[in-house]
Design a protein that fits this description.
about 500 residues; mainly beta; two-stranded antiparallel sheet; globular; disordered N terminus
């Protein structure tokens, strides 16, 4: 039997062979593309000594095959004809700056969850569309990435989407949540935070095991399959769009709930007014996690825009996450914004913001400065947009008992010829951290990048260099290089 570790090493080679194998002649359409990136992160601390020197090389390979079912010659609309497709995306992630000691549980320098080579299947599914005379929009099976009013998810299972014209659609998803810890390419960027899921023995691993007040050992969780179900309904009725959803995830088969989440969204577009509101509530945590409402009025063919936005956010987590024990400060924020034309291609925007930071622990450390708000701020923006270049500048400030921030941003982009873009972004800010009084003052960052379209829609190169400084992290540098390759057959 092949071990899980060996399978993780062999699987990428097998998948690469499948991607590069000669494709059979058929009416099907094949799309193959990849993005390879090199990321260099030498991080310099306040003492001027390099502390971290990451050297990351990652490649994403994607293969999509569709039009597998022939289209009947008498089909009224080929785009609405039944079809079968396969979609696969694989990422290979290597960090050549990681020493072997950090991945060895017997070494005191061991760090859980760090891999020098980390292959990952991002998604891999079969999909059937436009079935049963259009009543079934899609059926998918495999590793899925899907997004709804409930947010992003990565699940191993099946999805079915039923619909009646534009008025009503019902989407059902069931399976196992994709979490890190299993051997078969199960790393997930959407996994819950605040839960350690690894189990290793050795002197290095023992540093991460703690003893509680009763003398019992607190050890990381063994990875377990987490069943999940989700249902969402959405549609458009006249000028009004809606979406509602519910998701329930269990810690294990027969276990307690890991997450119970509900969400709702409504929007309406009655020219010249656009209205939108949404809310997500964590039932298990007995808290509203986020909510928003906005009104946007467009006048003068959209050149004048007046907007009023309300936002609420409170951090919520998986129910077995350690983050629940830490205090968090939910906040309400109201922003009024006006965007207007100036001269020619020059436009401007102004806004004002009122924020109320709640203190769930009752410590009273966020006193109102403009009842009932704890912080008051605003800003000004200018933008100059031309067909081949654009330039924008933004200034903003927020003052109060919970926030002390001022910032200025300047960005620009220019297109040279038809295949070469240059861009630059610079920022400077002044802030105070009320939780860490020693860390406040001035900071700044800059980005300089270029994008080259070597062969249109086939070969592209992007590069970027970043530099930043603030008193908390010192000076940091980063370099990026992306290579995009794609072909459709």
């Amino acid at each position: 039997m092949i071990s899980g570790h060996r399978l993780r090493l062999v699987a990428p080679a097998v998948l690469a062979a499948l991607l590069l194998a000669p494709l059979p002649a058929s009416a099907a359409r094949y799309r193959i593309d990849s993005r390879t990136s090199a990321l260099l992160y030498p991080i310099i601390g306040r003492d001027g000594i390099t502390e971290v020197n990451d050297q990351v090389l990652q490649t994403r390979l994607r293969l999509r095959i569709d039009d597998l079912l022939p289209v009947e010659s008498d089909a009224a609309d080929p785009l609405l004809a039944p079809d079968l497709a396969f979609d696969l995306s694989v990422r290979l992630f290597g960090n050549f700056g990681i020493s072997s000691a950090t991945t060895d549980p017997t070494n005191p320098d061991f760090v859980p969850g760090v891999d020098a080579l980390s292959p990952e299947i991002q998604f891999a599914f079969f999909e059937a569309t436009n079935l049963a005379g259009g009543w079934i929009d899609a059926v998918r099976a495999g590793r899925l990435i899907h997004t709804t009013v409930l947010g992003w998810r990565s699940d191993d299972g099946a999805l079915i989407r039923l619909g009646y014209e534009d008025y009503f659609h019902l989407q059902l998803v069931g399976g196992l949540e994709n979490i890190p810890g299993f051997d078969f390419l199960s790393a997930s960027p959407f996994a819950p935070e605040g839960v350690e899921r690894w189990q290793e023995n050795g002197a290095g691993a023992q540093r991460y095991q703690h003893t509680n007040a009763n003398g019992g050992q607190l050890t990381p969780h063994d990875p377990q399959a987490r069943p999940t179900v989700q249902a969402t309904a959405d549609g458009v009725v006249g000028p009004v769009g809606y979406e509602v959803g519910y998701r329930h995830t269990w810690l294990s088969f027969g276990g307690d709930a890991a997450q119970q989440l509900v969400g709702v969204r409504l929007d309406g577009d009655i020219d010249p007014v656009f209205l939108s509101t949404s809310l997500r509530a964590d039932i298990g945590g007995a808290a509203v996690s986020d909510a928003d409402a906005s009104v946007d009025v467009r006048l003068g063919n959209g050149q004048h825009r007046i907007g009023l936005q309300y936002d609420y956010f409170r951090p919520t987590f998986d129910l077995d996450s350690i983050f629940w024990v830490f205090a968090s400060d939910p906040f309400h924020e109201v922003t009024a914004r006006y965007r207007f034309p100036l001269v020619g291609a020059l436009s401007g925007s102004v806004w004002t913001t009122l924020r109320r930071v709640e203190d769930p622990q009752g410590k009273g450390d966020a006193e109102p400065v403009a009842t009932p708000f704890t912080d008051v701020g605003g800003g000004l923006g200018l933008a100059l947009r031309r067909p081949l270049w654009d330039l924008s500048a933004k200034w903003k400030i927020m003052r109060g008992s919970a926030t002390n921030l001022a910032a200025f941003d300047l960005s620009g982009r220019v297109t040279l010829y038809d295949w070469w873009d240059l861009y630059a972004i610079g920022s400077i800010w002044q802030y105070e951290d009320r939780l860490r009084d020693a860390y406040h003052g001035l900071g700044g960052a800059g980005r300089l990048g270029a994008s080259f379209d070597i062969v249109a829609d086939v070969v592209g190169i992007d590069g970027e260099f970043q530099a930043a400084y603030d008193p908390r992290e010192g000076t940091t540098f980063a370099g990026f290089l992306w290579l995009d390759l794609g072909v459709v057959l």
